[in-house]
Structure formats: structure tokens, C-alpha cells
Amino acid sequence: MALLLRLLCLCSALAVAMAARPPSVSIGALFTFDSVIGSSAATAIQLAVDDINRDATVLRGTNLTVLMQDTMCSGFVGTIQALELMEKQVVAVVGPQSSGIAHVVSHVATELRVPLVSFAATDPALASAQYPFFVRAAHDDSFQMAAVASVVANFGWREVTAVYVDTDYGRGGVDALGDALEAARARITCKAAFPPGAGRAALSDVLVRANMMESRVFVVHASPDSGLDVFAAAQGLNMMGAGYVWIATEWLAAAIDSGSGGSARRTGLVQGVVTLRQYTPESDAKSSLQARTRRMNAYGLFAYDAVWATARAIDAFLGDGGNISFSADPNIRDANGSALRLSSLRVFDQGDLLLRKVMLADFTGATGRVRFDLDGGGGMALADPAYEILNVGGTGVRRVGYWSNATRGLSVRVPPISRQQEQEPQNATTQTQKLYSVIWPGDTTSPPRGWVFPNNGRPLRIGVPYRTTYTQFVSRDPSGGPDGVSGYCVDVFKAAVALLPYPVPVSFVLFGDGVKNPSYSELVQRVADGGFDAAVGDISIVTNRTRVVDFTQPYVESGLVIVSPVKARSSNEWAFLKPFTPGMWAITGAFFLFVGAVVWILEHRFNPEFRGSPRNQIVTIFWFSFSTMFFAHRENTVSTLGRFVLLIWLFVVLIINSSYTASLTSILTVQQLSTGIQGLDSLLSSNQPIGYQVGSFARSYLMDELGVPASRLRELAITDYAGSLQRGPANGGVAAIVDELPYVELFLSTSCQFRTVGQEFTKSGWGFAFQRDSPLAVDLSTAILTLSENGDLQRIHDKWLSPGTCDAQSTDGVGADRLNLSSFWGLFLICGVACFVALLVYLARILCQFCDYHHDQGLPPERSLRRPARLGSIRDLMSFVDMREAEVKRAIRSRSGERRLDRSMGASSLSEEGPSSSLSRPSSSMSPV
Fold first, then answer.
1. Is the pLDDT of residue 426 over 60?
2. What is the CB neighbour count within 10 angstroms for residue 712?
């Protein structure tokens, strides 16, 4: 009985559950039937509805019906059709197809709380929180344009022309393209918009105006129905040949996939075009769907999955016990006499709940994994956007790479959307390669330059400084030439332009009042503001200027240097003492005497020239010592130790003589600074005024980088340099001038009384300034390098900047320091050690001889064998040292002979007395004890 009751309860619960699900649910579909996207979407939507109704696990007994409304590619008609669709109490709408209609219909959907699941409205503005019931079941154009910007950056192009249909869809896409290009340091230089439904003549006019600009990179953002007309007009204008770059957004891939326009039209008009297609990984569901219809593009695949996502959300909504009900909106009422029947519109009471179910969708469909994320604006969009990069060629398209939002870059690797693809091994080449080779218009594989000089009839406005001094650099042409300007910088610019492979018409405009040199920072700012297209002149490349303009390769090396007045060093009767410091003089003199004494000691016993009376010997020591300074000593050394010491000493004397001569010559002939400034450190540590050239960046550098107060700086024309330096700080002048090296070299070539001091303390150069991202800056840099390599740059330099009358003089000896002991102590140390070693060897030898000599002379011969000889007194030693070497040796030899004779005589006397002695000993020994 209990079991029966349980079965009855269960059946009742199932009956209630079955009764809770309605027999059918209606959704709407808004798109243009007769369009490339609409024809593919209509088939896909119908197939999706059929598949859902056949699958018993999806709606489980509830039949899904779809009500399709044709918007006829009209915003007005689309809005009316949307209102009529809402009257039929649909719970969701798949679509609309058009971004413009989506903007209007989203307001209706928000009011009636009906989710819009769009598969083709790609305007990024629809992601705004203003449209909470808009769900994008495809990728919006912000991602697509990021992919386009990556392609542009990959080939190094910096300027793009956008050709687009002038609708919400076109304008929104181009705005997104501009943002993406800006992040890639590129820009849209021309926006060529054409109205919807424009004919061949209107399109040709738009393209002619765009072709007059310098960019040759065209990005076409149109609809699949009208985009091919753009390429037909471009082909008629010969704009599909070599040198052009055409990038089409995903509309072209949709047109090709759907077979729109016929095979010949598709392949003949778009050869070499690069296009994008929303990436959908290969799967059984995708293959099955494409096999059931011949015209299925990416939009059709996303429409198919949009219906499935809606059906799954309805199933989840109904499974949670939700019921479908509609109620009147108090905000909607018919006006008096109106036939619109607005009051028939009903609010879907459970719309919020169904919207949340749509947002929770997560399944694998024909396009891969279907999952929604909050996008940047707060709206809902598909996660993991990715695009295929396609190249049209021959009879079809060829994939050359991918772009994925995960990496925000290009790659030949398949985007890792599924886990299986994440685990696929990749070799080192595919990990680093961005794109495969592309065949560009004109059947070339070399990437086009992407720009040419504009053919709009307006020459470049070139700002030229109107210099009033040193006009050989750049200034107004005094001869009244056709250009109106002349100078070294102008000739370099003309020579570089002549090397370009395209003509560059220019118009030179003088910048300045002709009274004083203009401010070069203001000239550069004029270029940055668009007042000039470029600036040509002696313009230094410094950091703050590179932030606002682009410079070419430097054609002149430059840097800031210091100029100071110099004067001849005054000499007097004691100038010959200035090369050495007093300490150096004292040590040098002491060593002369010391070496002379050492040589005298070593030579005294051997060399007769070093003997004589005490007076003569003292004179010899002094004479020999100081005569070695001039290598004029007449005494010859005969001892080995003496020669060793003299050799080292003469080397020391040679170094001292050479240094003395060089220092004295420098003191008597080299000029001396009159201000005491010897370089940057002494300039900054002083409080004296500093001059700089009018218009130079030296003022800002000295103040901002080196911390020099403005009160010390004096603005001067180059013609005032000489007078200000000669007057000096005491008379209202300056102590030094800080200016760029080219100006200083030209100034010093005619002003011999001034010199540069110290080293260059900045490294820069002169270049031509162009507006940011100007391709001319790059091409002219290459041309300048060519001028430098072939010698033309030097020839132009010699033509305008010939040297003056002053000889080039080095400033290394200005204010030369006196020589002190620290420069020579090593030589003196070597000489002193050699002298002491020689003296030690000599004294050891003398002591040995003295011992031998005194041993022979100090005792009688008969006592020499009985006890050792005692040492003589100091007086005896000095007398021995004063003896000649030959006498000592002769005395030692004679005494040695006498000793041998005495020894032989003593031995003979002993032999004669031997028998008697020998006889007496035994008798003694035999005496009684």
C-alpha cells in the first residue's frame, strides 16, 4: 500500500512538472534576408531550430519556433520589424544583423526585457552598459581591429588609409582601428568614408582623394554586399598593382566563403588582399553543418550557435520551474488617434532570469567553445576571440597566420582555445614566426613600402632658420635664388632628397625676423603643431625635441664645448726655474752630488783621474756630477760597478733633461688661460657669467641639467663672442662661452686669441626634424648615410665651411702644470738602489782586501804562525782605502812571497836540529819516577 502511494505521488509530481513546461516557445530572428550574411544566417538558424527540436534532451517536450523578420538593410524598417516581432511575445531575439539597427532595437529590448543574442552586430559601442540586454554571440570589431593593427605593425607601416561605409558599423570599426593603431605607434592619416549603397562613381571619387595621400596601406571596412564594389573601383583606378597594400576586415572572408559575386569576381578583384576571418576550430559539428549547406560563412556558424545558446538558456530557465508570462508596460501607451498599437507590446516578466541563463552558457558548438564573458564596457560577448589571417591568391585563400586575444599578437600557431590544441607540440620555428609569406598585389612577395610621396599638389612646407650670424650654415639666400634659402644644411638636405626614389616637392619658408637668430625650440614646436611639415637647418637633436618630432640620422656630429680667452704666458729672468718645483730641484741636485760621490768611491782606487789632492778630488766629484747633465764628463769609468751606476744615472738624466726641455718650451710658448677656467668642473664651481648663443639649447641644458642659475647666463650673438670674452667678467663680459662644436670651430678659425678648454660634455648631432611617424625621416636617414659613405657630405662641408686663418692648436698645454717629484720618484728610487748595491759590493770587497793586507803587515813574520792578526785602526783603514788598487795587490803578493820563504826557512832549521832533540827526549822520558 505504501509503495502504491509513493508511485501515485511520483506520477503526480511528473504530471505537474510536465504541465509546467509550455508546449512551445517562440524566439525571434532579425536580419536582412537578401544579404550575404542574412542568407547564410537564415539557413543556419533554421537548421539549429530543427536540430534542437529533434534532440529530446534539450527542451524536453517543448517545441521551439522561430519568427524571422526581414530588416531589409534599413534602420527604419528594421525598427518597425522589431516592434512587430515584440508584439508576438517572443522570449528572445537572435539578431539583429546590423549594428545600426542593434542600437535602436536594444532600447526596445531593454524596455521589454527581452534578451538580444546578436551574431553579426560588431560595433564596439554596443558593449556599453547602456545596452544591458544585448549579448554578442560573435567577436566585436575592437578585437578585429587589434588584429589589423598587429598586421600593420608587423610590416613596419606607420600610416593607414581607412576606407569604410559611413554607418554605425563602419564608424565604430574605424574608431576601434584608430585606437589599436595608436597603441602600435601608427595612425590613420586619411578616413575615406562612402555612403551606404554608393555607386561606382562615388566610390571612385573617394578612392581618388585617398590615393592623393602618402599612405599606400588601405584598410577596407565594409559589408560583404558592397565591399567588392570598392575593389572594383580600385581596380579601375589601377590601385591594385605593386606598391599597394589592401587589408579587408572579415566581411571579405564572409563573401568568399558564401560564394557571393561569382568565382571570377571574387578571385579577380582581390588578388593579393589580406583579410581576416573569425577563427572557429575544426570539429565534427562544424563539418556536419557545412556539409548540409553550400553557403556557410563564419556569421552563419555563429548564428547557429546563438540559437543553441538561447535554447539551452530556455531549457535551464524552464528546468528551474520558471514560467513564461508577459505583462503590460505602464510606460507604453498609444497616443490619441495613433494606429501604431504600442500598447500591444508586452514586457517579458522573466526576462532578467533568462538573460542570466544565457550568460551562463558554456558548451561546445559549431564555432568551438561557447562561453560569454563581461567585456570592457560591461556588456556580454564571446570569450577567447581569435582570427585567421588570410591571403587571397589564385582561385582561393591561403591562411598565413593567426591572431588571438590571449597573446595580443600574430603567430603561425593555432590559437590554444581547446585543451587538445594546448597540448599540441610546436617546434622552435613556429613558436617565433609571426606570419607565413604573403603574396601582395602585383604578385610580389616583398612587403611594399606602404607609402609614397603624396600626389595632392601641395609641396612640403619646410621651415628654415633665418640666421643672422654664420649664415654659411643656413639663412636667406643673398643672391635671391629660386629656393630663397642657402647654406650648408640646405645643400645637405637637397642632396639627400635627390637620392630618394620618388620626387619630393618642397617649399622653403624662413623662420625668424632677420634681426637675431630664431629660437630653434620654437621652430621644432611649429613642426610638431603642424605649422611646418619639416624643419631643415642646424637643429640639434636633444631629448626634449625628440619627444615631439622625429629626427633623421645626424649629418653633423656636435656637442657643447667651453670657449675661454687665452694670453701668452709672461716670462722673466727666472723662467728657466719654472719647469721644476723647488722640491724637484732639491732632490735632483742632491742626487747629482750623491751619484758623483758614489762614482768617485767606486773609481778612486782604480782610476787615476779620480785621484790627487783632496782639493782636486772634491772638484772632480762636483765636476763629474753636474757634467753628466749634458753628457759632457771627460772622466772615464774603468770599474765594473762604476760603469753600472753611471749607466743607470745617465738614463735618469736623459729622462730629466727631456722633461725639463718639454716643460720649459711649453711654459715659454704655450698660451695660458686668462680666466682660470680649465673645464666643466671649474666652470660650474665658479660664480662668473657664462655666455651662450641666441636660440641655442645650451641655456636650458645649463639650467636644467647642470643647475646653473639663470643669473649667470648671458644671451649673446656670435658676433659678440670676441668682445664679451675680451672684456671679461670685471668689465661686463663673460668668463667663458658654452656653444656647440661646429659654431665654435668656425669662430676659433678666425679668432686666434681664444681656445676651447676641457672636453665636450654632451654628445649629439644636427638632423632634420619631421612630424611624428613621418616616413620621410626614415628614407632621408638612409640617404644621409649614403652621402656620408660616398664622400658627398664632406665635399659639401668643404664648400661652405672652409678653415680660417688660425692654425689648429691643441689646448692640452694651456696652463701647463710644473713638474714635481711624484712624476720621477720611481727613477730616483731605481738609481738610489743601484748606488747602494754597488757601494755594498765595493765595501765588502775592500774589507776582504783590508783583512788580508793588515794580516800580512801588522805582525812580524816569526809570530805570524803563532797568533792571528788583529784589526787595524780606522786610520789604517782610511789609509788603506786611499791606496791604489795596484799597490794593494802588489803588497799582498810580496808579503805572500815572504811568508812562503819564511815558512820554508823554518822547516829547514827544524830538520837540522831534529837528531839531537830526538835523542834528548828519550833520556828525559827515561828518568826515574
1. no
2. 19
